[in-house]
Specification:
It is built from eight helices and twelve strands. It has about 220 residues and is an alpha/beta fold. Bound molecules: calcium ion (CA). The site of calcium ion (CA) has 5 residues, from loops. The site of calcium ion has 5 residues, from loops.
């Protein structure tokens, strides 16, 4: 588990780093908002502890841009401010939790554990390919902020594509997996379904996710 701490108070940053390391987390520290954003935007962390008042760039602006870039790493905000408005602004900007300074390390650790647990659960139930998400519990799909309505068969197809991203799927494999049936060659049932799905997923988006592999089948690509 890798934690990014973005905190300009050197002494506090050091205490947090040591404390987390004693709990066997891997910790990296950024001392200003710009450095924090550039590390956080790699998406290489399991959790980010983000101070609000930072040099170069404040925590709320870092949080908003991460959110806009669909970096979904859980974020716990730290702040010296304790007003309700600040708390609401932080949570509205996409923070998962909020802690007001001064706080005890034990309390921070408890919150961090809870967020990591929640995020592990979400990771196991939400499939993601680029900005497309499929929630396997709620049975909901969305691309960016757009909710996508799917029929049962389209849902099954989409799930199969997302679980096999960057892999070419032949019509035979798709028909066996999704219909439990091998269609006679000559029918275009699969192509019709995939074209419907493709227009729901890709229409209006610059980056297309479902691609035709000529003469072979289809592939979902994440880049
Ligand atoms: Ca600060």
């Amino acid at each position: 588990m890798k934690i990014l701490v973005v905190e300009d108070e050197k002494k506090l940053a050091k205490v947090l780093k040591q404390g987390f390391e004693e709990e066997h987390y891997i910790v990296e520290v950024a001392f200003d908002g710009e450095q924090g954003f550039s590390l956080a935007s790699t998406g290489n962390y399991d959790l980010i502890v983000l101070d609000i008042l930072l040099p170069k760039r404040d925590g709320i602006s870092v949080l908003k841009e991460l959110h806009a870039k669909h970096i979904n790493t859980p974020v716990l905000l730290l702040t010296a401010k304790s007003s309700v408005e600040d708390k609401v602004e932080g949570l509205d900007s996409g923070a998962d939790d909020y802690l007001t300074k001064p706080f005890s390390f034990e309390e921070l650790l408890a919150r961090v554990r809870l967020l990591l647990k929640r995020s592990a659960y979400e990771k196991s139930t939400i499939l993601k390919v680029a900005d497309l998400q499929l929630d396997l519990v709620a049975h909901k799909a969305k691309r960016g902020d757009k909710q996508i309505e799917l029929t049962g068969r389209e849902y099954a197809l989409l799930q199969y594509f997302m679980q096999n991203v960057n892999r070419v799927l032949t019509r035979t494999i798709i028909s066996e997996q999704i219909w439990n049936y091998n269609f006679d060659t000559g029918t275009n049932v699969i192509d019709v379904y995939i074209n419907h799905l493709r227009s729901k997923i890709d229409d209006g988006f610059e980056i297309k996710l479902i691609h035709t592999v000529r003469g072979v089948g289809y592939m979902m690509k994440d880049d």
